Amino acid sequence: MTGPHVMTGTPRILFVTPVAPFPADSGGAQRSFLLYQALRRLGEVDTVLVSARRPTDEALAVLRRDFGLKEIVEPHPGTFTLRRLDFGYGPIAVNVLRLTRWLLGSRTTLFRSRRMAARLGAVIDQGRYDFAVGRYLWPLVQADVPARLPTWLDVDDLESEVWQSRADEAGPGWLQAYYRRIAASYEQAQRALLRRMAGGWVAKARDARRLARPDLRELPNIPFANYPAPAEPLRHVAGDDGKLHVIGVAAFDYRPNLLGFDWFVTRVWPRLRERFPRAQLDLVGKLVDADVAARWAAVPGVVLHGRVPELPPYYERALFAVAPIFQGGGTNIKVIEALVYGRCCVVTPHAAKGFEGLEGLFEAADEDSFARQCADLLAAPQAGLDLGRHGARSAGERFSFQGFARAVEAVLTTAATSTQGGMSASAPQAASAGASTPPAGTAAATTATPSATTSAASASLGDPA
């Protein structure tokens, strides 16, 4: 790490994120947007986007104007090689993928990239920042940001939790052992690398315990509808067609969402449709896979709407929502979003993580219980809508932007106070795990102007994290 830097006056903050805060059309982008807005309350914020995908010219103009975008840095090419192989390149590619992950574990993503460190180092030298705030662990590790600046981390999705959830779903056998090995590798690396961070936040309290970092503060995902002020529950608008609408909102191209909704559409929904012929499942969100889209659209009562400019009209006619998610990390924004709009949500135990104690959630762990919970809500629509309104009150209190911003401020104001007094803001140091750069291609291993930015961001498409 470079020598200690003492803050004077308004702090200058470097925000490093792999998910752009605009357009806020996914759960990950919305969290980037909200975190940026909270940081703006504390000081001057510049953004570095770590992404291989360049924003559109329109988005780039907004990012530069409203989010202080200074640089777009491509991640090391090895980072996403394995992820590309994960999406259907045949059995040979899958076997290569599995062998590589088995051998390298967390080093497929958590390694130091000399090129990235040099690019970020140049930005840091030019900007004279007081500290950095980063989303996700891997960009900070690859760019070696903690070696240059005191760094606070928004943990959000834990890779160890993602892999462990896959192991839980796989059941006994070699595939479960494979997933558990990767999860254990990430668990160990996460704890070691977090020692280099000055502090930060987790999406749910249990993650801090899992990381053995009780100092990490809970920063729950909040529905975008609650920015900047809490949303009001939506009244139910019954259509003239007499249909019983159920809504599912997600970025369906995200693997955990795709697998979960495929299970619901093909195995649970036909049972409900047989009992309730007027039931209609409205799926809202991006789905690129044409084969999956055609297969889902062929199921009676299923309507795919794709990306939509506004969600409220779809929630208004819905009786309740579903979140059939069995894998992934972090928390599912789609769950709390439904409650804020005044709609109950039928969820898996995995999707309910981080939302314990809220009214209006109905847990179901298997096909029979999921179908039963949905059928009960379809059979008594008004009772479900009443429960949804109660859930909206409890969700609005716990998951507001004001609370989100306070959680950010509580951590960073303490840091700013200590450094203003002349103390070093240096983050704790520890040996860097996986500090070598892997061979290219082998993967050794998101205040803006409300009128322009917020309106364009309001087309929430679910949680891709």
Characterization of this structure:
Strand 6, helix 9 and strand 7 form a beta-alpha-beta unit. It is globular and about 65 Å long. Strands 3-2-1-4-5-6-7 form a 7-stranded parallel sheet, sandwiched between helices. A 6-stranded parallel sheet has the order 10-9-8-11-12-13, with helices on both faces. The protein has 2 domains: 271 residues, Glycogen Phosphorylase B (Rossmann fold), CATH 3.40.50; 155 residues, Glycogen Phosphorylase B (Rossmann fold, 3-Layer(aba) Sandwich). The protein is an alpha/beta fold and 465 residues long. It has 17 helices and 13 strands.
Topology summary:
Elements: E1 12-17, H1 27-40, E2 44-50, H2 57-66, E3 69-73, H3 81-85, H4 90-104, H5 114-127, E4 131-135, H6 137-142, E5 151-154, H7 159-170, H8 174-194, E6 199-202, H9 205-210, E7 217-218, E8 244-249, H10 255-275, E9 279-284, H11 290-297, E10 302-306, H12 312-317, E11 318-323, H13 333-340, E12 344-347, E13 361-363, H14 367-379, H15 381-398, H16 401-420, H17 450-457
Parallel strand pairs: 1-2, 1-4, 2-3, 4-5, 5-6, 6-7, 8-9, 8-11, 9-10, 11-12, 12-13
Biased composition (Low complexity): 424-465
Protein name: Glycosyltransferase subfamily 4-like N-terminal domain-containing protein
Region (Disordered): 419-465
